[in-house]
Design a protein that fits this description.
435 residues, alpha/beta, FAD/NAD(P)-binding domain, 3 domains, seven-stranded mixed beta sheet, five-stranded parallel beta sheet, 9 helices, globular
Amino acid sequence: MQQHFDFVLLGGGPASVSVAETLRAEGAKGSILLVSGEECAPYGHTHLSKQFLLGAQPKEKLLMHSESYYRKQAIDTMLGTLAVAIDTTDRLVHTDRAGDIHFDKLLIATGTKAIRPAIPGSALLGIHYLHTLADAEALRQAAKNATRVVVLGGSFLGIEIATSLTRMGIHVVLIEESDLLLSQLAAPELSAFFSRYCAKRGIELRTKDTAAAFQGSSRVEAVVTCSGKSLPCDLVVVAIGVAPEIEFLRDSGIQLGDGILVNQHLETSAPGIFAAGDVANFFDIVFKERRRIEHWDNAVKQGRLAARNMLGRRLAYEEVSYFFCNILDLSFNFLGSTRVILNLGERLEFEVPADERGDFLCHLSIGNRQILSRHFNSSSCSGSGVVPLRPIRRPSFRRRGLRRARRLAASARGALPDLPIGRRSPARRRTYLQR
């Protein structure tokens, strides 16, 4: 039996929830349906590898809203249901268990799926991924009886998992294929800083190596690396990356690339169909390149804007990317671009590459230290400088950083003067940087 909803939201993550919230806040009276492939109500993923894995946060605290919230807001939810195809002509979503759903406006926020290594032994028991609440519950239970764990992947998620397991008293070997952890930052000195930090706190790092095979009879007992090393283990956690969940769109006619290609209004090539969050590939007008960002803050902000555009507004997405993670006793916050060269000693040294042109913002803190907060204009700055590290308060960092980000985004198409921090005047700021 075919159902009809004015707004259909595919995905149970922050982007879909943000759209539903904003639609109601903006006065939308139409029917709203949120479709999620998971059996539980929408929840936050950011704490799965941290507080939840450590047992410090119950499942109920992960939920973004209670069931009563959705009832009061007249937001229907369809859980445990996957979209298997979309008919853009007849405006239908075909599902795996709930028939067809007709829509007026559609949001695709299906997120990502974990990449699984295609190597011998990958079907053995004891090999875990951490992408959903069910994954986190299974890993938390398995870790109770583990003494040795191998984590594959030195990404943010891999490091968060490794540090959480270390706090549980487990010996962790972290394997990363590239030279350093967090290679996606393209900031070698920053990666080296976190590599040293993890190693000093008991995590065994093996870089420039990767898994060649998993060994065991029915359960994994060891990881054999490409260098020939055999690492005994009780379980393995794979965190080697994710891929956008777009397979069901292959025959839809919606333009795909690395994710779903959207315009500045987050609308896909099919009118009235929008995409937001991890799956959306958008053109960043601040950094002047196409990007797909897999972070909570981006999903929430894109959801808000997509909702307003689903109501007929034509707003452009002009936000500066922001993300955070926790590594042992450090919190890591980053706002902007990684196109700087960093030296994390008593002072931070940065350099604007000679071939860079235009404006970009880098705002970074580690723990209670502000590492860098600076707007660069390659046509007006000298190309390098030094900023002494100084303590800051995290709320202050976020307020100042986001204010600076909004100012940069609003002026992304034009040259900007240097932006002051706090009460320091632009002239004093420039003098300070040149010391």
